[in-house]
Amino acid sequence: MAITGAVDLGDGLLAVTVDHDPTSVATDAPKGSVIIEISTGNWFRKDDDGATTNVTLFTTLPIADTLPLIQGDVDATKKFRIEADTNIPTATTVVMTSPGADFEPDDKAASRTPTAHAASHQNGGADEINVGALSGLLADNQNPTDHAANHTDGVDDIQSATASQKGLATAAQITKLDALITQTRESVTTTDGTLTTIATIALTDDTAYYLKCDVVGRRTDAADRITARREVSAFREAAGAATIQGQEGTPFTRRSDGSYRVEINASGNNILIQVKGKTAHTINWEVVHELVSVA
User: Which helix (H) or strand (E) covers residue 177, if one does?
Assistant: First the structure.
């Protein structure tokens, strides 16, 4: 029967482990020391000096100063305590392992390699990183969230275009552009000599117009073609019908067959751009017409 290990707790006190029951076998330890019976795990307090059996069983585990186990002389103010509840079953073994000699709990400058845990910071992880409040640029390109409303009568309107700065056209500017010119492209196919409408332009009442159109026709089943430009001045006044003022302008016509024609005519409230091919001639026609108007 003997002391199997001892730790100096300071102030002349020891913490010793024994392989016997200290209540029946004398243990030589200073008064106030801690005796731990290995076989049962029971802790006792030594109540006098010398080799005696005068001990008291702890109902709660003592608080032990284990400073010599975990720290050198760097900072003598930091200590480490162990406290245990009275309800721990005697069959339960609690193992305390002292740190290695190179362990320095107060050394904040020492580098530590963390265990792999990238998944915890990724999307859906327990500690997902939010880059919303970070400054600087991210390495990967980021797709902005929908925010069009911020730039249209919102908190971050894009500047309007002026004569001296770039920007978005305003409604008033678009209206002026619409009044200056409207250009449209349309098409039709003819297979006979019927006058066929390729474009219908509705005129607004109390408005004057200048209409110009460029027409190209090509026969698909033989080598025939036509190119032509036509222009007219037209108007509507006092709820009246569309009217062409004066003669239709015919500044340019080139055609391989004299039967091919391009005309501009008025019908109701509309101006019609019309083309005429020839019987048994399949012709594809394209027109681009421009309309300038003022009310």
Answer: helix 171-180
> Strand, coil or helix: what is 55?
strand
Q: Are 20 and 28 in contact, with CB atoms under 8 Å apart?
A: no
Q: What is the pLDDT of residues 97-126, one digit of tens each?
A: 444 444 455 555 667 778 888 888 888 888
Which of 60, 57, 70, 59 lies closest to 96 in space, CA to CA?
70
Task: Assign residue 238 the CATH number of its domain.
Answer: 2.60.40
Instruction: Single out the residue in 42, 75, 107 at which a domain terminates.
Output: 107
Which secondary structure element, helix H or strand E, spans residue 34, and what is its range? strand 34-37
Per-residue pLDDT band at 180 (split at 50, 70, 90)? low
Residues of the domain holding 284 = 181-294
Question: Is residue 71 helix, strand or coil?
Answer: coil
The CA distance from 262 to 253, in Å, is: 9
